[in-house]
Design goal:
120 residues; alpha+beta; 5-stranded mixed beta sheet; 4 helices; 5 strands; globular
Amino acid sequence: MSKPYEVLKLNSDSKYRCMVVLCNSHSPYDYLEYISNDMISIYSSGKILIDQFLHSGNTNKRFIEFDIIENKLQNSNFVEIKKNSIYRKTTCDFLKNSELLIGSILTSIQRRMINKGIVI
């Protein structure tokens, strides 16, 4: 996979317009300009969620929320997302159906859980 992140659509009743999942272990701030350009071409306002699971692991700094204001990503905040959340499931389903787990920073236990369909 050549793109450093993937934009995943969410249900229309979601708090977030979409979720961005990092596809490598780099910081999302390395790609913020590109993510911002992608988002403002699709959405003029709202909130997006970035899951940096492959960068930070399953920590309290895993999810970052951004507001889209005046065609810019602003007001970043770390947010806590519950374990049974659709956002975690969406990321795990995406990772399970990709080759991104191979060589990732995730532990072998985390990789096995995802491959078995367990949401973490």
